[in-house]
Prior knowledge:
This protein has 320 residues and is an alpha/beta fold. The chain is built from 14 helices and eight strands. An eight-stranded parallel beta barrel has the order 1-2-3-4-5-6-7-8, surrounded by six helices. α9 packs across α10 and α13 packs antiparallel against α14 (305-318). Residues 12-15, 17, 37-38, 67, 94, 96-97, 136, 166, 199-202, 222-225 line the site of flavin mononucleotide.
Amino acid sequence: xxxxxxxxxxxxxxxxxxxxxxxxxxxxxxxxxxxxxxxxxxxxxxxxxxxxxxxxxxxxxxxxxxxxxxxxxxxxxxxxxxxxxxxxxxxxxxxxxxxxxxxxxxxxxxxxxxxxxxxxxxxxxxxxxxxxxxxxxxxxxxxxxxxxxxxxxxxxxxxxxxxxxxxxxxxxxxxxxxxxxxxxxxxxxxxxxxxxxxxxxxxxxxxxxxxxxxxxxxxxxxxxxxxxxxxxxxxxxxxxxxxxxxxxxxxxxxxxxxxxxxxxxxxxxxxxxxxxxxxxxxxxxxxxxxxxxxxxxxxxxxxxxxxxxxxxxxxxxxxx
Length: 320
Ligand SMILES: Cc1cc2nc3c(=O)[nH]c(=O)nc-3n(C[C@H](O)[C@H](O)[C@H](O)COP(=O)(O)O)c2cc1C
């Protein structure tokens, strides 16, 4: 049986976000468990080089999960064996991705419309590899079909070792608010013995505390709130330990973080792609600074490291 540390904070898998440089930052700031972005099983089986790159993990990241998705059992089994070779701590099966190109083809959240296939896929992957297999899913396809209670039992029965539940349906995509009641219900189902990880809209220490205390989950998974604020894990931990809210890092610290994180991302990709990729993080940084709009636009329009470093210099001077 998988054992969890006390109140673990888990970095959610996010496509184009949770690559090694970002994961390492979240780890530094207290994330207890990291997930890769989802990796296409079909592309892995075909050895597509850009996809193979997504399997890169380093020991400092542990425990680390590599998540795979696909609609065919054969390729998921094959992909899981390939993933096993790079020795992550866990392999996760994505049964929750709502985007059309994935879900409409029957993969990701598409599996919520074919439970026998989902369960059979989980069973066969579990059988094929020696490392623990986990799964991440949503409440159901839509509000008429909230089937998470049943899925959780079935996945546990075929050997899934932990289940992360995002408290939305596929139809909701990312709209509305996450419903944690069904997550709590699954957690409190006496038949469920595996760790249940709650996910959805956790963006403050108080919400993380409520997730553990009110819903009793074994772990809290954080996605969007970590973008541009990888220190959220540290803030939550500090709150748990002291009851006090830790201030956001100073502007000077944030600039240092941007430089280090961006340098890592540029090394991981290359300068132009690294900058493009990093804009999502930049857009979410330096929140709440007065009269920041123009500098933010300038920052987001920078196309080279030199331009960006220049803007960061201006930010540092203005907001010392
Ligand atoms: C940009 C982005 C990419 C995502 N990619 C994945 C993914 O690859 N695999 C997955 O299981 N979920 C993915 N998700 C969903 C998140 O893991 C998480 O379930 C969702 O964002 C809700 O959590 P949050 O409110 O803490 O962000 C993604 C979400 C975002 C915003």
